[in-house]
Amino acid sequence: MTNLKDSLKKAAQEDYALGHFNFSTLGILRAVVLACKNLKSVVFVGTSEGEAKYVGYKQAVALVRAFREETGLPIFLNADHHKTFETAKIAIDAGYDSVQIDETALSFEENIKVSRRVAEYAKSVNHEISVEGGLGYIRGSSEIHKEKIEARPEDMTSPEEAKDFVAKTGVDRLAIVFGNIHGVSLAGNPRLDIERLKQIHAAIHEIPLTLHGGSGIIDGDIKACLPHGMSNIHVNTEIRAAYTNALRASLAADQEQTTPYQYTSSADKAAQKIVEGKLKLFGAANIL
Ligand SMILES: [Zn+2]
User: Fold this and answer.
1) Which of 140, 144, 130 is nearest to 232 (CA)?
2) What pLDDT tens digit does each residue of the chain (288 aa) get?
3) How far apart are CA 45 and CA 7, in angstroms?
4) How far is the CA of 158 from the centre of ligand 1 (A)?
5) Ion ligand 1, residues whose Cβ is below 5 A away
6) Which residues, other chains included, contact 6 with Cβ-Cβ below 8 Å and sequence gap of 6+?
7) Is the pTM of this model over 0.85?
8) Distinct helix (H) and strand (E) counts, the chain
9) Cα torsion 61, 65, 66, 72: sign
10) Which one from 6, 15, 80, 102 is the annotated catalytic residue?
């Protein structure tokens, strides 16, 4: 089976992006796997610190391994937005394929220090683990925001700093900020700065880039990213919203129903539909 590093490099070379989808229930994980199976795509799933705390690190690894064995699909598990060396280490030790060390709230120097430590530790455990670093501040959180949230000029990733950061940390891929936010802003999502993306890609050409906050971005902006090294796009909020809306409708429609796998099945299907739509948009269908 191919590893994640090779899958991301192939995506960058062939101008598509792998979708990265978060899960905190078995039903949502299965929905992502089914979507990828239907569309012949690589499965890239993640748990944030909160999601991993609920699911369990070892449990997440075991679930992913079971789906991998059953389907034969390349399935990779990422520790999404891990904020300390200690939590990143828990994920690495549990057998995650990937970890995102997110120290973007710290100074540039502190960010380098922790990211380098995680990259070195990951490589000492298993060379195939892909480590994602991040530069630039992503506003918002994975939910529907009523107010307008937009990236400010000082939040954006600088191409020069990106080059310096990658050289000093040894991370395998980089999350960047060029207009993206977390969540969906109902007052209008900000546009992506494709010129900045091009400059960052030119500065660190060999490093696959990650777009966080892929929910709610207009399709044209997503497509414009694909030829410029954007090999991985994160979607969480749109799945959460579709799942929750379908679940609410299902509970309201049949108030006698008490079987969880009955009343969650339409929610799982709603999540699957979002994932399938994103895989097509990212050019990630029929890549296996
Ligand atoms: Zn994110």
Assistant:
1) 130
2) 589 999 999 999 999 999 999 999 999 999 999 999 999 999 999 999 999 999 999 999 999 999 999 999 999 999 999 999 999 999 999 999 999 999 999 999 999 999 999 999 999 999 999 999 999 999 888 888 888 888 899 999 999 999 999 999 999 999 999 999 998 888 887 899 999 999 999 999 999 999 999 988 999 999 999 999 999 999 999 999 999 999 999 999 999 999 999 999 999 999 999 999 999 999 999 999
3) 14
4) 19
5) 212, 234
6) none
7) yes
8) 12, 10
9) positive
10) 80
Structure tokens at 235: 């979607």
Active site residue 254: no
Instruction: List the structure tokens of 260.
Output: 């969880």
Distance from Cα 202 to the centre of ligand 1, integer Å: 23
Contact (Cβ atoms closer than 8 angstroms) between residue 70 and residue 87: no
